[in-house]
Write a structure and sequence with these properties.
heterodimer; A: 160 residues; mainly alpha; Four Helix Bundle (Hemerythrin (Met), subunit A); elongated; disordered N terminus; B: 406 residues; Amino acid/polyamine transporter I; 16 helices; 81% helix; globular
């Protein structure tokens, strides 16, 4: 009897461990999912977060491009950093565009922030093309555009 | 001469495992986002690794018992199996991340997609584990990886404001624009990157393979891990000096190397890339070997890199499987750096089940005679174990709440 009881307890414990393991796996997978935006304030915070993330990405591309222009960075290395920045910028913009603004005010905010977001991702593409073609004048121009775009974006970063 | 060789062993310890892709990336991210305010987490992780590395080394040198042997003996077969499964999963993620790290570093130099290099790196790791002598493997990786000292030198070349950096390090605060939760997430990540369990398995089993004595083990622990800590802090501080003003997040290997270019131009970046390759390749070898060690030790199979495949077939097959699986995982185009961040945090969960048995056996006179822990070591070990358990408890909630540090 006792042996059977302990066997059952053992199986129950195994089932419990499996459930805990499954819960952990699901929780870890969920960590990568985007949350819903239900209030105007939530949406503002998402805008600020998007602006901060894009600023970081642009900063990386700017630094790599300047080091490349100064002859301090090999072309392959600068290309990698700038291409990654371009991909990350595009992902940030896509993630932002998939968010539903909760009301008209948030939709107005979306319209205003979308313009600098699109401009910056386009400028990152221009910079990547310029680095790959080793066109220094185009790089200078793209860097100037990125600086302007960042200035436009800075007001949204302060929304948080 | 013997003393120099012993110190070199410590250098290998620093490069071949302590500074791996997890350490490189978390140091870069934290430096660029939080400045030097998380230096304490590296310092704490380094002290933990020195204290527990010394205990594991002492047990290996005096009692000739490896870490996973005592894990199974002290925790029992069932709980040790939980540790084995968890550690295997973590090692697999680590091997995948390190293979990806080597391939990414080569892409930085060549401009060719890292995915093309992944199978080559996996194959090369297998050949080295299969054919290269243990000392040659460790020494080559350690010596080449010393090029990472370029980050220490870069801090001087960049005329860093030492006072400001040190002040922020000893008066840690959360920078504006960052949340406390994210700050703590990265503190746990840094700590986790320093005390990853595979280092303990490799450290003790590798020493037993080489027949190292107590003096060598201690030198290795007291020189190697602190050197690794210095390199991690240098990467973090260099990122704080160069990347933080641009508000760069430092989340890819390319960004981590930029301070070296800022200081020394193309020479600096070449040294950084060589260091990245050596550190990540060394860690790949250590993580793969430690998987073979722990599984063979759990099941009581013959183990050892020095043993021919016909003498320890299971050990060699496990090494091959983990390298194959790791290579396949990276070939799915999963981001090795994201893989690293998640595995580093999850490793905090497996750490208590590895380090607690070490503390217990380090106090057992049947194993160690008069070489058991003294009161200071026990106090330190106990306090660090509390920190390890606290980090383990906080790791997954922080991962979820911060969406992996976003």
């Amino acid at each position: 009897m006792d042996g059977g009881g302990s066997c059952l307890r053992g199986k129950a414990a195994e089932r419990f461990e499996l459930r805990v393991l499954a819960a952990l796996v699901i929780a870890v997978l969920c960590a990568g999912c985007a949350g819903t935006t239900t209030t105007d304030n939530d949406y503002r915070l998402k805008v600020a977060h998007t602006a901060s993330s894009l600023t970081a990405v642009v900063g990386s591309a700017q630094l790599a491009a300047r080091q490349f222009l100064d002859g301090r960075l090999p072309q392959a290395y600068a290309d990698y950093v700038i291409s990654r920045a371009e991909q990350d910028g595009s992902s940030i913009q896509t993630a932002f565009d998939t968010r539903q603004p909760p009301d008209a005010a948030a939709d107005d905010l979306r319209n205003r922030v979308d313009q600098p977001l699109q401009q910056l991702t386009g400028d990152l593409t221009d910079l990547r093309v310029a680095v790959r073609t080793d066109d220094h004048a185009a790089m200078d121009s793209a860097l100037a555009d990125l600086a302007k775009g960042l200035k436009a974006l800075s007001t949204f970063r302060e929304a948080s | 001469m013997k003393r120099i060789l012993t110190v070199m062993l410590g250098v290998m310890t620093a490069i071949g495992g302590f500074v791996d892709i997890g350490n490189l990336v978390t140091s870069g991210v934290t430096g660029s986002r939080f400045g030097t305010s998380l230096t304490w987490a590296v310092a704490l992780g380094t002290v933990a690794m020195v204290v527990y590395g010394e205990m594991a080394g002492r047990i290996a040198a005096v009692a000739r018992h490896s870490v996973f042997h005592i894990v199974r003996e002290r925790l029992g077969a069932r709980l040790a199996l939980v540790n084995l499964v968890g550690s295997f999963a973590l090692n697999l993620l680590t091997v995948a991340a390190e293979i990806g790290g080597v391939a990414l570093a080569i892409q930085l130099a060549s401009g060719v997609s890292y995915l093309l290099f992944v199978p080559v790196v996996g194959l090369l790791a297998w050949i080295v584990i299969w054919r290269a002598p243990f000392k040659l493997m460790d020494n080559a990786v350690g010596l080449i990886g010393l090029t990472l000292l370029v980050f220490v030198s870069a801090l001087f070349a960049l005329h860093a404001h030492w006072g400001d950096l040190a002040h922020a390090a000893v008066h840690p605060t959360v920078p504006p624009g960052e949340t406390h939760l994210t700050w703590w997430f990265y503190a746990v990540s840094l700590y986790g990157a320093c005390v990853v369990p595979y280092q303990a398995y490799f450290f003790s089993s590798g020493a037993m393979e080489e027949g190292d004595d107590l003096s060598s083990m201690r030198t290795s622990a007291f020189v190697g891990f602190p050197l690794g800590g210095v390199l991690s802090v240098a990467i973090m501080w260099a990122a704080a000096v160069v990347l933080q003003p641009y508000q760069i997040s430092g989340t890819n290997l390319g960004e981590v190397g930029l301070p070296a270019a800022a200081a020394y131009g193309k020479i600096g970046i070449a040294l950084a890339i060589i260091g990245f390759v050596a550190a990540t390749f060394g860690a790949c070898l250590e993580a793969a070997l430690s998987t073979g060690y722990m599984i063979a030790q759990y099941f009581g199979w013959p183990w050892g890199k020095r043993m021919r495949p016909s003498q320890a077939p299971e050990f060699h097959v496990v090494n091959m499987i983990v390298l194959l699986a790791g290579t396949a995982l990276v070939l799915t185009a999963i981001d090795p750096v994201q893989l690293t961040l998640v595995s580093v945090v999850l490793s905090a969960v497996a750490v208590p089940l590895t380090y607690f048995p070490i503390l217990v056996v380090a106090n057992d006179r049947e194993y160690l005679g008069d070489k058991v822990n003294g009161p200071v070591r026990n106090l330190l070990g106990g306090l660090l174990l509390i920190a390890i358990v606290a980090a383990a408890a906080a790791a997954i909630p922080l991962l979820l709440l911060t969406k992996a540090g976003q």
